[in-house]
Queue: 4 jobs
Job 1
Amino acid sequence: MSSPSISNSSSAEPQSKEAALPPEVQYIQYSHTLEKQYLPSIRALISKDLSEPYSIYVYRFFLYQWGDLCFMALNPTTTPPSLLGVIISKLEPHNSALPSSPTPTTQRGYIAMLAVSAASRNHGIATALVQKTIEEMRDRGADEVVLETEEGNGGAMRLYERLGFLRSKKLSRYYLNGNSAYRLVLFLRGVEDMGRDGQV
Amino acid sequence: MHSNAVTGVTSKIADFDLDNDQINLEPPGFAAYNSEPPPAPKLKSAGIVSLDITEQFVNAAKQLELGELVKDPHFTLFESVGALEIMDPKMDSGYLQAGETMEDDYDFSQLLLPEEIIGIIDQLLSHEMAWHMGHPLAQTIFTSLYIDRILDPCPISLEQTYFDKSESCEDEPLMHQVLRAYCLGLLKTCGYVNQRVKSEHYYEEEDFVTHTFHRSLLENIDHELIIELLEETIERSQGCIGLRLGFRASFLEIVEAADSRTSLEQVKTMWTDFQLLLPGLKSTTKLGKPAPTSFSAKIQRKLASTVPPRPIVQVSQEAAFDQLERLCRDGAVAVEVLKYYDSHSLMTFVSLFQARKPQPSVYIRTLLQHYIFGDMIMLGNMSIRQVLDDDLSTTVLPASQLLDRANDEVEFPNDPRFKMAERMELFRSRAAGSFLDILRTICQNRCRIRRTLCHTIADWDILQLDAEELDMQLREFTKETPVRDREISDEPIYSFSLSSWAYFYKLRQMEWIVQMGFELEVYQPDELATMYYYLQYLAKTRSRHLERIKGFNFRGFNAIRNKKTAGDASHDEYTKALTFVNFSTMEAAATYGLADSLSCLFTVLDRLSLIKPPPRPYSSDQMRYELRLKPFLLIGLPELIPFTDLTNAVSQPSESTLSLLKYAAEAAMAAKRGFEVLSKLSAQEAFCQGSHDSWIKNVKDCLKACIFTGISIATVKKAVEGMDKNGSKELKIRVEIPKTGKGYHDWWVVPKIIPVS
């Protein structure tokens, strides 16, 4: 495995129709100055579905380098606005391990974490967060977007597949709990155009 | 979180040579009580002068803002995932909850009741099977305090294994001896299993955890001594305790004997006899009394690991026995691979064995690899060349002078036979690895089979080209006379035997890539029409290619048939190759028939909006085409079907829905006849010697899928006709796509058509 992976969006999809959302969910792009205010709630929201938490360094690894690929869904009716959902990603050149790959080097976006609080699910927040991320990645020259999701997580799989992702492979016993995953991939450009003008 | 990272880092840290005294003398959780930093550890490495930079570091750190990250380019996600936070109970292995002690306080001199012994033994068996299922020793067997007592400190003789360190042979209570003998047998068994898995190709953590956390699995204690202790204890025991000791002795004997590649029948009998012991064990587990205090998650703190204790893995007795029974059944079958018939039967054996549901466990899969490839000797007594030549002979080179061993003896460099031997050796050195990799690949877990094939398929494309080069050189020496057939081409037609062979296997593997995609549920419902179309394209290409091979084989056969001198051997070789080519052609025809039928059926379901594609605002059909066919994009032959051609071929816009259904029904019918013929072939004719029963079952499952496809087609047709007749706009059917394992065959996703009122 070229890089370790991060469990994705086990809580992306609705389970219950809960309390009504505020009329307008506010989506904001993360930046380093927001760390003090939001990092604790980001960690709390994401850790909820993990058997073992990520260290602070994992969050900082992403947020410090790709803060603008992190989006938060906030409830503007509370003071301070409370966190309803969050998505964390990175975008880097990716070199294929295969010399014969049709896509030897790509600008690869990677969605690492996605979570929406249980009470706010089923309102399209996760979808909106993913869309903002894809658009930001596309603007920054991404050739493709990839992620992994647990095989049993039908909700997350439907969310990504509705947007255009395909399952490219199945990864056996990928997670600590022994469950398998699918690698989901979205090509944003044709293979011919990949790796040409990506910004780093 | 993905677990690989942490363990990887863990073992790295464990290897780091620090001055232990300085680190471990501090009480646990010192940081909370002591504001003074501990003295710097002394690095014991020659030529390195250590320098305390704590102050400079602290000063530099103060310049940073909270959350600012300073890292070099080599600090990757992998490293950040491996980082720990001290004093976080889920990350800090030394963190203790209020009142928690570092170690367990267990009295090893306490006497145990027989029912407690049964309870502990049966719990250990569950843990052993959990380990076989892929959980680490640290969360299974190593959670037993008795096991820990034996392994720490590492014993080098049986005398060092008493639970109560004041005990000796004379005064060890019988129940302690029983448990000790069982534990020793268990650990030794695990030692053999671990060794086997580690020696073969497997994926650490994904398939199995061989990590022993720096503990020995009794490598220092002689097998015979443990068996003797078990036997001696059996003599002093009775009832279900004796049964358990006997079970352990047999298990240990099997894993020791199973490595042998010369005692097929004996190993097979051992597995089947061993399996007979299981019902007795199973029916008496209820007599056991659980002894939960003799297991502890805390022991993990003593193991070479930096992560906090993880929960003890709980596998039910029932699941454990299931696993064990399968181990026995699969073990008894796996060893049969040693009976070699021909290379194609070998390949069939391995692929059918690996397709068993559930897939055989990692230990058995690695045993199978050992049987096939151990010490680079095929099946214990054949060279790789023998198997490869056998395969070439039964496919493209029957009775060929190229495979004549006498060529090797020719020493005159200008002799064509010398040149042939030389070129063939070059070919073998190039092809043998790729050929054996096919076998090695199908020994992996199902996901890895597809992933690996997607990677290696490009090598076969290159191999085919390289072989083509050799084919052209070789025909100078063989004086091959080309076929001249103006109907096909104005050019002379040569056999290109070696590249033909490579092309054949490339096509097979491309088919498997597509088929494994169905099994692993990689495709979305609206992709099925295209993927079955691609499968029929590949199978049809294989069938045409086989026609070509067949033509050349026939030509050679006719040439020798009338010659008396050729002898029986070449006659047999031709017959065998022709039979194989014939068989593979039939198999390809049945495959493309059913694939064609399903492709049309899915196209109809797409047209009728019974399968609805997702909106996919960020993607286009063309980009998904490239993503889906990525493994094939750069393959030279067979040519990639261009996007628009593929789209048209699949959607067939000029055909009416009813005519598509008619065509689908005919194709399913033809495939059905094909599978029926296949199901009547003998083991020799179907090249499945050694696995005929599984092969027949597989063909019959395909046959059922065919029949079911016919029914689905008929149901859709009726609904469409009904709609036309009534002028209604409502189709009174809906579609269900069966999950893998729920249909008749995982490679044939047959949609279920359900009438709705």
Job 2
Amino acid sequence: MSDTRNWKPARSGASATAEPGVIEEAETRTSLASPWKVIVHDDPITLMPFVTMTLQKVFGYATAKAQRLMMEVHTQGRSVVWTGAREQAELYVFKLHAAQLRATLEQVED
Amino acid sequence: MQPIMARRPDGTLSMMCLPPEFSAFLLEIPSLMDADDRPEAQSRLYPHPTADDDEANAEWERMMHPDLFHLIAAARDIVVADLKLLRRTRKLPTGGQLNIPADHCNAWISAIQTVRSVLGATHGFDAEDMEDISILSEPGERSGAMMRLHVLGDVQGLLISESQLEPGGGSPDDAATDDDEYDDDDDFDFDWIGDGTG
């Protein structure tokens, strides 16, 4: 698994222990780090059309792309469905969790 | 009794002539969404974003899980409201009736996904189990859970297809494929009436 040591939900902002108005160094460091992957994992309970529909809704993918990614999840156990900035990746993972798809974040290895 | 489904001009899906046992499955949905006291189901409904970063996962739990809880509760509230008609009609000789307004369809799809996730996690069903029809005749809770998974999967698949129809009827979106995991080979196939949705 790739490095997740610097990860914190972006929505949390500075850590709870920080003084008001103080932005910790880690915040800046993380934002400049390599991009993050959103990964969907296979789940035998979930219907294929549901996965396709969810990928279309969350990412706005065309049907063909959503189906290709869904089949990748189904046949390979997981699929990287999006890569990019951390905050957006977190939002996508939250939306996938809200749809009850199994999804995780991983930082792209340097 | 053969269930009938129709789509009204306003987009409402109307299911009629529902057999009592089928109505019972639908009426169970709100209670089956409850994952309390079942750690496996709790973990499935409220997952972590990383496999091995305990600190990050704890932060995510604190920040995100309350929102997930509210989303699940909101879907359940909609389903509970829609089930009132079925609760009143389920014992009629003509069968039960359920109306799902068009803007409730996503809540139903989501609620059924919650139930299927809870059942799958609670009973530890894997891909092999999902293909094993002998589980349906096993004694104990697993057979009942598997039956609910299949029946509610059929309903969810139907609702997904319906949600992708153009307003007022039309051809289904091509999102559904020949590889769909669900099939309609069960005892609750719907006859269609109405305009262009058959």
Job 3
Amino acid sequence: MREVEAIIERYGAKRRHVIAILQDIQTQFHYLPREALLEVAARVRIPLIDLYSIATFYNCFSLVPRGEHVIRVCLGTACHLKGGTRLVEALERELGVREGEMTPDGQFSFETVRCVGACALAPLVLIDGRYYPKMKQRKLTQVLARLRRARPPAEVTQ
Amino acid sequence: MKIRTLEQLKALQGELRAARDHKPCVRVCGGTGCRARGSEEVLARFTTLLQEAGLAEAVDLRFTGCHGLCERGPLVSLAPEGIFYQGVEADDVRAIVMETLARGVVIERLLAQDPVTGKRVRREQEIPFYRRQHRLVLRFNGVIDPTDIREYIAFGGYHALGMVLTRLTPDEVIEIIERSGLRGRGGAGFPTGKKWRLARAAPGSRKYVICNGDEGDPGAFMDRSVLEGNPHSVIEGMIIGAYAVGAAQGIIYVREEYPLAVRTLEIALAQARDYGFLGEEIFGSAFSFDMEIVRGAGAFVAGEETALIAAVEGKVSEPRQRPPYPVHRGVWGHPTVINNVETWANVPVIIERGPEWFASLGTATSKGTKIFSLVGKVANTGLVEIPMGMTLRELIEEIGGGAPPPREIKAVQIGGPSGGCLPKTLFDLPIDYESLTEAGAMMGSGGLIVMDDRTCMVDVARYFMDFLRDESCGKCLPCREGTNRMYELLTAICEGRATESDLELLEELAQVVRETSLCGLGQTAPNPVLTTLRYFRSEYEAHIRERRCPAGVCKALIRYVINAERCTGCLACLSPCPQQAIRGQLKQPHVIDQERCIKCGICHEVCQFEAVEIV
Amino acid sequence: MTRLYINGIEVDLEEGTTLLEAVEHLGIEIPTLCFHPGLSAYGACRLCVVELGDGRLVSACTYPVQEGLQVRTHSPRVLRARRMLIELLLSICPGSKRLQDLAAEHQVERVRFSVRDERCILCGLCVRMCAEQMMAHAIGFVNRGYRRRITTPFDLTSDVCRRCGGCLYICPVCELRCQGPEAPSVVCGSCMTPAPTCPPVYEDLACYMGAAGECGTCVRGPRTPDRRSPDFTRRRESV
């Protein structure tokens, strides 16, 4: 994989850089493809199992592809007190999938996150990296409906 | 340009001050809270409108770090008058430019209101939220542009480093830090000077200094705000520390969840290199030092220092037995000093103003100030810095403004998942390391979560166990299985399935997890359980004996009902109900069908008349 | 030489010795599970905790001897902690003879947690065996916290595994399955007597590899779904 090759080049094929390398692969592909892990293991010369342990240990890595829109509900303490859990339940009802899963149509991935440090905005939902402060169940369903209606951006063709 | 001498630095500082001091300055808050509320748009609008009004040259515009009062963002302050506007929207910008900047007229509706007198107050210092604070580490947050090193220099930045490198020996620096009484701001409160001395004395030619920016406590964002608002203060502190212990390499470990902090730091490091504060022969001395950023990949346990070392080395973040301590065997086996963000940021201040001055702040054993993120069920959520020794009551009620009525504050959770819940009766406790630890909580890194009478303490304990059983690395049995079993027991209590003997078992287990876990995460993990049991036992007993949740939180033990007297029959709750469980006609009281109700609480949320009650 | 005191007995030992070695040097027995002299110490099961003079409980297998250290190997706090740890272990691995024996030795007479037969205590001996002695690095820990388990990359048969059986050999819980009654207490009744837990016929069984399953010893324990099946994962997450 050319992209993986380039990422490894950027840091150097050293053990101490594997987490950074995986982070960049995650950013590029939105998940860690198996071939990418195999390639990193071979290039950095570390046992595949060590890489697999790292990939499953840290929060920011995902071994399965993500949906078009990534919805993250913050479950920090402040968000929990102000009803974050209810938002999770509302999303489970709305999307028909559990936390950590993707809708069958590939449109939404739904995750929870333990505090993004924006506690004054609790309860907080992040959709595609954008902050939605002081969220309510009702508002959330409306945002979802809007996202569903919006067509995916047209492909740029040459 | 490279700064080689202290004189050069002072000359540059004078130059920068001269260029900016006479100009009015608009400071738009660029903290995460304000950004989420649209401060970037506010900034953009200012840029265009200042241009339009022909004021672009005459007025400085800056996008600063967090001002602190996140609750009321976006925040804009105007220098030199010190006018403080809150809740500024892009559409308000025209008025600010045309009225305030051009004609000096203050816009009343954007000013803060004193909660007691109801009067509008103009200046930041007049707002109760700021009045009682002592902003030392945060002194330039909200003032300077964190992406421009010249801003930091203009306010005296890197002067402390210059003094250290040109006039002090490493031992003298350590002595100053020891005399100041500075203790680690990351949790346990280990004396910083002592740590440095141990590392300096440790054999080894290669040593490291690390900044622990893995702020994983849910409900805490102090370090984030310092890194985003004033990164150079941390960098300067680290260079001074490196000189003191004899390290040539530094590492800043920051969570990837803080992308803005990472970006700001990258810019800051590049600029510090440009000015010669990092690199070879800093300030013309024989001391050379550089540092790099390592992004954390998301693990609460990485805040534990041996786990952080593993993460830096490119491994799974698993703690190991101490001793050997990192000051003897740290990264790749070399002596390593690990301090947290706020600790490092305190260092330049101590050098600049002297250890005696610093030690005059605070209490006998806890010196200086501490930053807290004040969040939860409190009126003024945000970032505060107070002198150690202030009471919890002053912090929560005077600065935080108490709970928005009609709710009443019941407890405060300090120190994140490792800390504890303290009841209102202990609010006269002074905030210092010893008092908090004695009460069963801990200083932690400074997350302070206020809880009101609608917070169930059993649910809070369960929340933290859920967090910890997932964030535990899983290496040692008591932490992995113990937190999981405590979670199970707490869930049973929340669902009204538990017995008195479960409560005993919970206490017994909590004690063993505390005593036998391998690292600090596990050893402090039972604190939320133990403190809630100690101070709020009656709530546990209500769940067990009466199958009742006094705060009305635990779903299995509550019902939603409509108060027929309050219900106006507006139909607003009918359509949002996902279960169609509410029946009713216009202007007739509605009724919830308990058979169908899933207790999602939407009706409670949408009702304008508080007619939906939890029983 | 470092001088320390173990249960009040003065002992001089070389620097770099661990407390476990020191304790064994005096002929005092303390239980261990995740420790093996041929592998690096890991400090995960915490069964070997001892009490230090300052009141801390530390794992003897990883703690280095220090000048003047006061160590108590069987203080009331240590014993109480060990009992709770054994109870936790039994609750996830009731079918292990080794654990049942430990329970009997430590007077653990009941398991108060809901039982979840994991057939693994995550002591990591197999992982270290595979990496340190067999140099294979075929298996390791995945996930973290309560979701942690031991497996091969992607849960697929490993290319680097040589089927040496080292992992099975070293496992402290899969060597002999306890055949005790499936009492609600999970603690096997026979372990409460000084007699061997299981009938002597199983003593020399040692069928770690090829013959496994043929005699039926190792599969007669409580039935649970396979750890790797999707069913199992779902069940765990819903807990």
Job 4
Amino acid sequence: MEEENFSPRDSLQVIQSMIDKTKAELSENSIYFLLWGWLVFTGCLLQYFLLVIIKTPYHFLAWLVIIPGILFSIFYSIKYKHERRVKTYISDSMSKLWTGMSISFMALCFILTNIGWQHAFPIYILFYATGTFISGGILQFKPLQLGGIICWVLAVASTFVNYQNQILFTAAAILVSYLVPGYLLKKKAYNK
Amino acid sequence: MFDELDPILHSQLRLAVMSLLIGVREAEFTFLKEKTNATAGNLSVQISKLKDAGYIDVVKQFKDNYPQTICKITKKGIDAFEMYVSALQSYMNP
């Protein structure tokens, strides 16, 4: 970039182009939505298969699929934090939000272990709704906000069906709040 | 009547640096260099001028045994940037 006198119109172009370059890197966010979307979606279908088709009492073992996700998320976030050369308000907000959500998810595991897992799925869907709705607001990405709104409806609706079908409601919730917005986010980042 | 443009900001590279920093919490020197396509020497000189004007804070530290320079816009810098944009608007819409 050369040092020279330039017009007010040039100034505005410089400002616009530089501000565009610092907009949130959307791709980094889509990775988490797609990873956790596929893991939870797989966990739901696997548990449904083990519970309804195989009829095993060990259907809950389906959720072991999330262990690689936890390890990958920790590894990836440490690596990303180490490598990133710029801190934006958006990336900081997303980091704080999902760190908080992760702690709540873990706390919920302990709470449900004590009080019983029979009503776990509507509560988890509520968590997905809150996390994705706020993320959509931070990233100004409407599909995430819409996914969050649909999750609130699914969370309430799931209380009218039995436990087996609540698993399918959770799969639907993760599809609309993580997977579909995750792919749209990835596509948007790719086009950008 | 046109508002006077701040001579510190009315320079392509310094304005580019300020425009990058206005949207982030802080950025490394290498990030600024990559986004502005400036040479390290030229960028260092312009960053020093912005620092001397009080528009940015510069922190030099070590990360994995390598020197790291982190830049962050100050309150004075934000005010100056906003006044500069306001002055630009008077030129664009007299």
